[in-house]
Amino acid sequence: MVMMISKVEIRSGAYYDSVILMQLQRELAALPDVIDAGVVMGTEANKNILSQNDMLSPEGEAAGPEDLLIVVQAPSEKVALDALRQVDELLTRRRQGADHEYRPKSIETAAEMAPDARWALISVPGRYAADVTRTVLNLEKNVFLYSDNVTLEDEIAVKQEAREKGLMVMGPDCGTAIVNGVGLGFANQVRRGPIGLVAASGTGLQAVSVRIHQLGSGITHALGTGGRDLSDAVEAITAFQGLDLLRRDPDTQVIVLISKPPSATVAEKLLQAARLSGKPVVVDFIGYASPSRRVENVFFATSFDETAEMAIKLASASSEVAPSKEVDSSAFASAQRYLRGLFSGGTLAYETLLILQAYIPGVYSNVPLKEELRLPDALVSQEHTIVDLGEDEFTVGRLHPMMDNDLRIRRLEQEASDPEVAVLLLDVVLGHGAHPDPASELAPAIQSAFETASKAGRHLEMVAVVVGTDEDPQGLDAQISQLEAAGAKVWTSNEAAARYVGRLIQTLSPESEIPTHTPVDLSVLKDPLSAINVGVESFAESLSAQDASVIHVDWRPPAGGNQELMSILERMKGL
Amino acid sequence: MVMMISKVEIRSGAYYDSVILMQLQRELAALPDVIDAGVVMGTEANKNILSQNDMLSPEGEAAGPEDLLIVVQAPSEKVALDALRQVDELLTRRRQGADHEYRPKSIETAAEMAPDARWALISVPGRYAADVTRTVLNLEKNVFLYSDNVTLEDEIAVKQEAREKGLMVMGPDCGTAIVNGVGLGFANQVRRGPIGLVAASGTGLQAVSVRIHQLGSGITHALGTGGRDLSDAVEAITAFQGLDLLRRDPDTQVIVLISKPPSATVAEKLLQAARLSGKPVVVDFIGYASPSRRVENVFFATSFDETAEMAIKLASASSEVAPSKEVDSSAFASAQRYLRGLFSGGTLAYETLLILQAYIPGVYSNVPLKEELRLPDALVSQEHTIVDLGEDEFTVGRLHPMMDNDLRIRRLEQEASDPEVAVLLLDVVLGHGAHPDPASELAPAIQSAFETASKAGRHLEMVAVVVGTDEDPQGLDAQISQLEAAGAKVWTSNEAAARYVGRLIQTLSPESEIPTHTPVDLSVLKDPLSAINVGVESFAESLSAQDASVIHVDWRPPAGGNQELMSILERMKGL
User: How far apart are alpha carbons A54 and A48 in whole angstroms?
Assistant: First the structure.
């Protein structure tokens, strides 16, 4: 067995970018007789990795997250110490090798050198990233923020600031984007074509854009948002900007939206924005429960491959995505805007709630999709409400509403008296065991509800879903005729009824639900890409290789990365 | 305005079934001059409903949940009191009208009268339902338990008892089923055909079976489970029995599984049972995030309509659902069973986790699908593990694994040394910004991992997903060739790779994950339906109307429903 000695060097407050550290580690490990080497910042995670590889001595344990920790493993102390002695020389050699052309030291100088640069790529260590982003936003540049380990508070602050200015911040932790044919960060070389992407998932964006290319189509732009963008805290600021840009981009025929499961509230709002984009939108919220396969112009996919396939199909037949027939809501009084659904079937109610998510936010229920939408009192509707009258609470000593219409008839009258109610939705479930002729009781109740509303100068829309077969004892056609004769719009598909109601109610809802802000100028996508690169140098090289124009900033952290000195400088700024 | 007087009568400890109460209410309300009437058990919910209709006086408030509460609204006290005085007569008339044939008073007698009855329909009030179910199970009958308001503890107890006996309890709160062409509870008249249903959702079952009929196909059997069956507590006891029955039923060509979102653990196990059923299975877990559109023989639908459409399509082309190519796992040593995935792409890791759910339970990760599967230490794998090495924790002062392979190469060696590891999975993401030639470093590492395993007498399967285009700077084909030359199985679709790995790992997993118990005899579905009905009388009438044989039990609660007396009787039994 070979003798093994570990020697450690800790350099406090020194800043080197990650490429330099990786190269130093490789060069140390490649020195004659050296067994292994580690060159990392002394974070807990990094020390654990060293420890995993038996390279963490008690000396090394002492390194803090701001310290550079260098470990050399060798068969003798001499070899290890010799290796450590070469660190300075290796670092100097790297630095000289890189200095083949003039590099501005400040972002401001870079901005003067490249007045056309609309973008900045930022990949400095996380703790510096928000400050660099603010500097760039002040120079009116859009930001591709590759850096991770940025706080949520900083993310929110810089995105809000950008939105005010009509600028976009993709990221933090944005791995990839393709703007006007040029890949930023990690991006595949993908054919130009009719599909535009917005993605809160880096490899999701890459996997889908690659598949689109493999299948023979291509993309306009692919915009990253960073993984936290679709959280409640960040409110999808960047995703909304991206959707809006692609909506306005005449070359984008189909929009693809990719994310890990977003917050329910954000998902709802994004789907509504997608609905209103007027273009076919393929949504792949990986691991998200789709309300349906399709809601109007919004299509739901469940994998990267399927997302690409659906987008291509829609791009080649976008005329097939005809807008749904217009609904007529002109007859309603101005205060009328709410839906009230009175269901006897629990899962019919549930499916309706799911589908309506794509049309209107927040439907209250006694079987709600999320707890905050639970009706405080199932007997009293509020705003949009769907009640399952077959729930246990209603059936103690009482027949199920499929057998006994009494409760629904009373509630129907109650809802019809509410001046804010516009649409009433009922299910009528036929079959053995159910009421022998439900329409004979519901139709008069519907008529009476119409009269109540009409006396008060209001129009009502009454929608009924009849679940039954032509062989059911009640007679499907006879039930439908009775309901239609009373003035109800009858559907035999719960899904189709929910969509109809969704379209109708949506026209009555104020569209201000979709956040509107200073739009990002479409020219940031359309102009030839020009950027300032701050951080990982190879990203600049990659832009050059794609014939984009780029200026790399020879960035150093303030005070050389010394945290104490930085905070003194920070305090002096305030004076 | 009409004067309005409410008069109330409270009858303590009296039992009447819900049909009688509904009819009494209607008859009272129909008496001359009576304005409205309410006849309910005095639960809080029922009193709230009365109150909503302005029918709850302080007197009525005093009624408890065991009391029958009768309210009459009339223009004068005299009319109201006259109406109340007729209650006894109306009730007596009902009772006599119903007694047109001999009815056994006890379930035991009914069982003697109908020795062929394999089923009992139970729709007594919830608090009596578990006891009645136990009585029926002791008589070796299967149960359709319509009653709701049954406790979870009782549900678990009776289902476990039934399972031991090879009997089935559909419910509680099971609204519907179709057994051998006969509808139980609420059920539509649906054509016989090749599709069998298992549903934890009553109206879901009805909506899908109706749509199947409307589209020209039909069903074999439709088995309800009750809405709580797929919870962690109940562990889908009935759903597993249903799946197993339909798997064994030669007439069922396609199985449909419907539920509101099940618990993640139960969903996983059910999907694995579905996978192993050998028949095409269409899953509509309404509001559940499908792992994919299709996993082998399991297909995911997102609405009732789509579920029906997919099932019909599969039934008419079930030969298309060819079993996937067999994977060969014969070369592994007996201790080898685990997967280790080392990803650089977070969302690729996530999609893989989603898809693997359908093959194997519980993959640990630092980006887990559920918190209990979070790796305690991201640096140490356990059982099946997928690590995202691009997570923030790994990238402080270190390049992303798409640029720097060091971390993955070290981890690969570590995993290859683990005698329980069978399959290693890597993603290799190409494109601008990424490592200029990742395969040049990964291929030797793969070879070295093979050698490590081989020296220890083990076989390894090395799977790589390459995400890249033919125009990427690394050259897609060259990367693939290097990896293949090193012995890796290479895929360009993440989804396809995940499925392959899933099949492979599944063959190495003990199949005992799927609960096996006394199977329910297939003849309970195949014999002409014969049943005992306990509770709502109209369900017996409905069975007769369908030419099924049924005996209705003239059931009364013990001690006439008097709770105090019941508990005394209960205590005496124990003596």
Answer: 10
| B359 in a structural domain | yes
List the CATH number of the domain containing B561: 3.40.50.720
B520 within some domain:
no
Chain A residue closest to B370 (CA)? A287
Could you tell me which of B121, B200, B222 has the C-alpha nearest to residue B548? B121
Q: Are residues B343 and B485 in the same domain?
A: yes
- Asked if the ipTM is above 0.95, the reply is no
What values do phi and psi take at B422, rounded to 5? Answer: -115, -40
In a domain, B330, yes or no: no
Nearest CB to A433 within list B258, B492, B542: B542
Same domain flag for B220 and B239: yes
Cβ contacts of residue A148 below 8 Å, gap of 6+?
A126, A172, A173, B392, B395
Q: Are A498 and A86 in contact (CB under 8 A)?
A: no
Domain boundary among A42, A66, A98: A98
- Structural domain includes residue B519: no
Nearest to B18 among A346, A398, A471 (CB): A398
CATH of the domain at B461: 3.40.50.261
Which band of pLDDT confidence, cut at 50, 70 and 90, is reported for residue A321?
low
Residue of B nearest to A186 (CA): B433
Determine the distance in angstroms separating the CA of B566 from the nearest CA of chain A, rounded to an integer: 19
Q: What angle do the packed helices B438-455 and B476-485 form, to 10 degrees?
A: 10
DSSP state of A289: -
Both B205 and B316 in a single domain?
yes
pLDDT score at B491: 95
Chain B CB contacts of A493 under 8 Å are 211, 304-305
Tell me: do B228 and B257 sit in the same domain.
yes
Kindly tell me if the per-residue pLDDT of B518 is higher than 50: yes
Strand order in the sheet with B176-179: B182-185, B176-179, B219-224, B192-199, B254-259, B281-285, B298-300, B294-295
A199 in the same domain as A169:
no
pLDDT tens profile B396-412: 878 899 999 999 999 99
Longest pairwise C-alpha distance within chain A: 100
Inter-chain residue contact A210 with B469, CB threshold 8 Å = yes
Nearest C-alpha neighbor of B40 from the set A454, A190, A407:
A407
Which run of H or of E encompasses A489? strand A489-491
Does A13 lie in the same domain as A38? yes
Instruction: Give me the mean pLDDT over the A517-526 stretch.
Output: 93
Whole-model pTM? 0.82
User: Nearest CA to CA, how far is A475 from chain B (Å)?
Assistant: 10
First to last CA, chain A: 62
Residue numbers of the domain that contains A536: 109-173+527-575
Using the 3D structure, point to which of A43, A74, A98 is the last residue of a domain: A98
Q: Judge if B193 and B291 occupy the same domain.
A: yes
Structure tokens at B163: 């399972």
Contacts of A22 in chain B (CB under 8 A): 398-399, 403-404, 406
CB contact under 8 A, A206 and B467: yes
d(CA A324, CA B430): 41
Number of structural domains chain A divides into: 4
Cβ–Cβ below 8 Å for B213 and A369: no
User: Does the pLDDT value for residue A96 go beyond 50?
Assistant: yes
User: Cβ contact (<8 Å) for A21 and B406?
Assistant: no
- Partners of A346 on chain B (C-beta within 8 Å) are 201-203, 227
Mean of the pLDDT values across residues A123-143? 95
Does residue A172 have a cis peptide bond before it, meaning omega lies within 30 degrees of 0? yes
What CATH number should be reported for the domain holding residue B49?
A: 3.30.70
C-beta contacts of B374-383 below 8 A and 24+ residues apart: B377/A48, B378/A45, B379/A48, B379/A49, B379/A52, B380/A52, B381/B338, B381/B340, B381/B415, B381/B418, B381/B421, B383/B338
Residue B382 and residue B267 share a domain? no
* E-assigned strand segments in B318-420: 338-343, 364-365, 385-388
